[in-house]
Amino acid sequence: MSWLARLEIDAETARAEGIYDSYTWHKKLWECYPDAPDTKRDFLTRIDTLEGAFRLWILAERKPARPQWCSPEGFALKEIAPSFLAHRHYAFDLRANPIKTVVQRGPNGETLYRPTGKRKSGKRVPLVEADELRSWLIQKGKVRCRDSVTGLDVPGGFQIVEDKPLEISPMVESYFRKKGQAAYHGGVQFRGTLEVTDPVKFIETYQSGIGSAKGFGFGLLLLAPINL
Fold first, then answer.
1. For the chain, how long is the longest CA-to-CA vector?
2. Which of 19, 91, 162, 192 could potentially form a cystine with 14 if both were Cys, beta carbons 3.0 to 4.6 Å apart?
3. The pTM is what?
4. At 146, phi and psi to the nearest 5?
5. Distance between CA atoms of residues 49 and 84, nearest Å
């Protein structure tokens, strides 16, 4: 069982609450779970900036509560029925953080190591070219992630319907400050049509999200069943 909540907040209220970037939202949305402040984050979010307002989405297996800074008329909640995730085709809207990992090497191409002797992690860089972004999303349908225990690829359970338009917005940099350090995520919006290839894995993908930076408003699939 999953829940989908929509919160609509005007910009003036957000300013009064001290909300000014994605990291602030990251912390603020915990107030939808006032009885479990120390629980591991197990919900997805999305932040849409409107004219003079924000529209927020929360997808979770735990039922979220309306925070005090969201008015009753700005809060909508619905339970995701199992039948909703039993369709074959969906129109989808996804805001994701597509990245690739670039191996860090020295001037002569040698592997770089940390002082501890451990190899340096690859540098994460955002994808910006349309063909790279399209390939990234197609690959996510085939391989959602790699299982940390078995080391095996976990299928995403869907494929993009090729003969339908796939809209890919230009990458937008979302800056924030965390522990005094400035950083940003590159957000890209995808809109198109998908076909479910593995219902069980697709439900897992829907519930766990797509891509990285999920705690900062990325990876949540908005779906609408369609007939083709």
1. 61
2. 19
3. 0.89
4. -110, 130
5. 27
Compute φ and ψ for 50, nearest 5 degrees: -105, 180
Q: What angle do CA 55, 60, 64 make, to 5 degrees?
A: 70
Tokens 């997808």 sit at which residue?
Answer: 59
- Per-residue pLDDT 10s for the chain (228 aa) are 799 999 999 999 999 999 988 889 999 999 999 887 667 888 999 999 999 999 999 999 999 999 999 999 999 999 999 999 999 999 999 999 999 877 666 676 666 677 776 766 667 788 989 999 999 999 999 999 888 788 888 999 999 999 999 999 999 888 788 877 787 888 999 999 999 999 999 999 999 999 999 999 999 999 999 998
Whole-angstrom distance, CA of residue 27 vs CA of residue 11: 17
Buried residues in 202-221 as b, exposed as e (16+ CB within 10 A): bbbbbbebbbebbbbbbbbb
Helix or strand run (H / E) with residue 8: strand 2-10
The end-to-end CA distance of the chain, in Å, is 27
Structure tokens at 10: 């005007």
Distances (CA, A) of 225 to 38, 53, 173, 183, 190: 35, 28, 31, 36, 17
Cα-only R_g, the chain: 19
Encoded tokens for 137: 């999303």
Helices (H), the chain: 11-16, 22-28, 130-142, 199-208
Residue where the block lists tokens 């996510």: 140
